[in-house]
Design a protein that fits this description.
Blueprint (H helix, E strand, L loop, with lengths): L4 E10 L10 H9 L2 E4 L16 E4 L2 E2 L2 E2 L3 H13 L3 E6 L9 H10 L2 E6 L4 H8 L13 E5 L13 H7 L2 E5 L5 H10 L7 E6 L7 E6 L3 H8 L5 E5 L6 H4 L11 E4 L6 H10 L3 E4 L3 E4 L4 H9 L6 E4 L2 H14 L10 E4 L2 H9 L13 H10 L7 E7 L5 H8 L3 E12 L7 H8 L3 E4 L2 H9 L9 E4 L2 H9 L6 E2 L5 H13 L1
Helix pairs in contact: 2-3, 10-11, 11-12, 13-14, 16-17
Length: 506
């Protein structure tokens, strides 16, 4: 055996069944520390957000009839990268040692004398039934469970699975990767004496917003698969515990279950909206149309930030502006008191909350989350004549605030804190999924998300409706030829989510 290379290390990481919340903390650490990430088809691509910006990402996905690399080539790749002294994270759907061929990859590393670790993951064999309301063991139904794989060559006339033993074992039986052979599998089970009315469930894309469950019996499930076009990836559960789904189906009964919704916010901001929609059962496609970048003239903005203490008011119109301002402020100063006596105004609760996280008190916040409402609030307070005002805002934003405040006699400086640019990357395959699968609803949280989505020139899926965060965004959408079906009464993320829930509930 070769001498172990202490510099490189490969982590065989279980990526879980699909729900990002079921990924282990250790798996996240491995991704954050990795120089190279080698990942599979069934891994949630959102996990790649945790990677270092310069990490090499290599897709080696395998699905029926489509193999990017053969298993031997994957083994060789892991050995090569680890031997080069890299920290390698090998992401495998579910658990690497449960029908994941992780054992073969570990053997290849061990035989090469390389350091490796195994990070177990939540297997879909347990998680998918749980999310379908099927406990794989139940005191009143059975006391044991058997896992087996149905992943065999569909051209084989005979299966290598011992169906006689399965029939004798009874209890709950869970089959992974066998939808294509469900007819052969059920015929073998029936021939070996398993009863025809045994409940069976197939759970497709378990634990994700795409989850679908098909229920039948041992003698009907194959025909139901054929008639419905039900396809992989799916887990099959055989046993009386399937009947408990009628009582325990919690995941697929949520308000937005079965609805596919597109989120167009930036990658860094999408999480809040995505999380709230997913918690209600939606299948969310994160398709960012914009990303946040530094302003064209960062020096000019820095000079305004440096003189922040000279202003009577500093106005923030978005959390992005808050982030950009204080990132520079604390590079220039190490004491928050250097902001002087400037009072602070904020548009929207998200902006106000971000300011509070920087321990800043918000002196003025209109109830309506638009520039016009802030102007009205300033008028109520007696105006701004001869007051110095700094606006920390995006480049190419609406000019309502600077115009109106200047008209009222204010001395206004526009601080361009950031700019939004079109997002051209499709790291998680959302554009492909939108084209192939369509969507029920697309959400727009700003005028720029509308403009940039349409600029992408993507086909508009049949029946996809539009949800807007507020009147300004809606106006932009209508001006560009879109019909707005949902508009939030409260112009923030919780308000948008509430409007969407009400829309589909109605």
């Amino acid at each position: 055996m070769e001498k172990k290379n202490k510099a490189g290390k490969c982590s065989l990481v279980g990526a879980g069944p699909g729900d990002l919340g079921l990924v282990t903390l250790r798996a996240k650490e491995c991704l954050e520390q990795a120089d190279v990430i080698v990942y599979d088809y069934l891994c949630n691509p959102e996990m790649l957000r945790w990677a270092q910006p310069n990490a090499e990402q290599i897709y080696v996905g395998k699905k029926a009839g489509e193999h990017t690399l053969k298993q031997e080539e994957i083994n060789a790749l892991l050995v090569e990268k680890t031997r080069d002294g890299k920290r390698v994270a090998r992401l495998k759907g579910g658990d690497p040692f449960v029908f994941g061929r992780g054992g073969e990859e570990a053997q290849a590393l061990a035989r090469a004398g390389l350091e490796f670790e195994v990070v177990p993951g939540v297997t879909s064999a347990v998680a998918a039934p749980a999310y379908a309301g099927i406990p794989i063991t139940h005191r009143g139904s059975n006391s044991h469970v058997t896992f087996f794989t149905g992943h065999e060559d569909p051209a084989k006339e005979e299966s290598s699975i011992d169906f006689t033993a399965l029939a004798q074992l009874g209890g709950t039986q869970v089959m992974l990767m066998g939808v294509e052979r469900i007819s052969t599998v059920t015929q073998q089970m029936l021939q070996k004496g398993m009863r025809a009315d045994l409940p069976v469930a197939l759970i497709r894309w378990g634990t994700t917003g795409r989850q679908e469950t098909l229920v039948g019996t041992l003698d009907t499930i194959a025909q139901r698969v054929l008639e419905s076009g039900f396809s992989a990836p799916a887990v099959a559960v055989f046993g009386d515990v399937v009947s408990l789904r009628k009582e325990l189906n919690w995941f697929e009964n949520r308000p937005l279950a079965g609805k596919r919704i597109v989120v167009t916010r930036t990658r860094t901001q999408a999480g809040v909206l995505t999380g709230q929609l997913r918690s209600l059962g939606a299948d969310v496609l994160e398709l960012p149309t914009i990303r946040i970048e530094p302003p064209s003239d960062l020096r000019a903005f820095a000079e305004l930030v440096q003189d922040a203490h000279a202003y009577d008011w500093i106005v923030f119109t978005s959390p992005n502006g808050v982030n950009a301002f204080f990132e520079l402020f604390y590079k220039l100063y190490d004491d928050a008191r250097e902001i002087g006596a400037a009072r602070i105004a904020a548009i929207g609760p998200a902006t106000a909350q971000r300011l509070k996280e920087f321990h800043m008190h918000v002196d003025l916040q209109p109830e309506e989350f638009v520039a016009e409402a802030l102007v009205r609030e300033f008028r109520k307070q007696g105006g701004v004549e001869n007051l110095r005002i700094l606006l920390a805002r995006a480049e190419k934003a609406r000019d309502v605030l600077p115009k109106e405040l200047s008209t009222m006699g204010g001395i206004v400086d526009e601080g361009f804190a950031y700019r939004t640019v079109p997002e051209t990357r499709d790291e998680n395959g959302a554009r492909r999924r939108l084209a192939e699968e369509g969507a029920d609803l697309i959400t727009f949280t700003s005028s720029s998300t509308v403009e940039n989505f349409l600029a992408l020139g993507l086909p508009w899926p049949k029946g996809m409706q539009v949800a807007s965060i507020g009147p300004v965004t809606s106006r932009t959408a209508r001006d560009l030829g879109l019909n707005v079906d949902v508009e939030a009464r409260r112009h923030d993320i919780p308000g948008l989510v509430a409007a969407i829930r009400k829309f589909f509930g109605a």
